[in-house]
Amino acid sequence: MAAPGGGAGLAAWLTWRHTPLPDATGRLIAGLTAGQHTTTGEIRDLGLADGGRLWLNSATTVDVAYDNALRRVTLHDGEILIQTGADPRRRPFVVDTRHGRLRALGTRFTVRQHRDHGFLAVYQGSVAIRTRDGDEAVIEAGRQATFQAASVTPAGAADPARQAWSQGLIVANDLPLGELVEELARYRHGHLGVDPAVAHLRALGTYPAGRPDLALAMLENALPVRARQPLPWWVTIGPA
Fold first, then answer.
1. Residue 56 burial by Cβ neighbours in a 10 Å radius (0-12, 13-18, 19+)
2. b or e along 119-129 (b: 16 or more beta carbons within 10 Å of the residue's beta carbon)?
């Protein structure tokens, strides 16, 4: 990627490229004292100082720090949706994760922090990724990618329906039941699993993220499955 022209643009580019990412110790300490967080099943919508918006999905922890050089969100755990605002000072907007840094280029996008990789889906504009080890890529609107400390891997087309969680919904467009249940499990305490015998069934519809028990009842009506609950904190979906 070529650096932007002009003094202000060059300064912003150098800031985004060379401001150090948090080290492992910093992530742990910051994660315990982060500025914003959600509990299991909670979704929050926050306004940012520049007019942008930040949505936090279930069990998400972030820091938000704006200074003279950067607008920075540090994602420690979970998933966020960002709609950037127009900054008259032209400070770069970055998201730091344990695997690398993302720079928003006038955009709307989601970032999810997994244990061994990060996930990015871009819905408007584009996002530049620089991994911890220095690999770089630009992901354009309508595309998604996974990234680790050493590499970026394009992952096909971004599904706009993935943003629906910001409205408290999970949209299944011919989604395997196993994947849908995995998503629902993020919003419920305890174990929520699916029997391999029915995990391949395809699910359609819109399900309430914040009411996983209602979503399970909807699945029982839509598919030949049954949710069994031998213990209050243990639910498995199997054949009806």
1. buried
2. bbbbbeebbbb
Provide the residue type at 204 as one letter.
L
- The structure tokens 């500025």 sit at 35
Question: Which tokens hold the place of 41?
Answer: 């099943």
Contact 125, 47 (CB under 8 A): no
Give the 3-state secondary structure of residue 127: strand
Helix orientation angle between 212-222 and 177-185, rounded to the nearest 10 degrees: 160
212: pLDDT confidence band, cut at 50, 70 and 90?
Answer: confident
Integer-rounded Cα radius of gyration of the chain: 19
At 100-114, the pLDDT tens digits run 999 999 899 999 999
Q: Report the candidate in 119, 123, 85, 79 with the shortest Cα–Cα distance to residue 102.
A: 119
What structural domains does the chain harbor? 7-159 (2.60.120.1440), 168-239 (3.55.50.30)
Residue 7 has pLDDT above 80, yes or no: no
pTM of the model: 0.83
- What pLDDT sits at residue 240? 94
DSSP conformation class of 20:
P
Q: Model confidence over 46-97: pLDDT tens digits? A: 999 899 999 999 999 999 999 999 999 999 999 999 999 999 889 999 999 9
Q: Hey, CA dihedral for 21, 26, 27, 31, is it positive or negative?
A: negative
| Amino acid, single-letter form, for residue 169 | L
Q: Are 237 and 194 in contact (CB under 8 A)?
A: yes
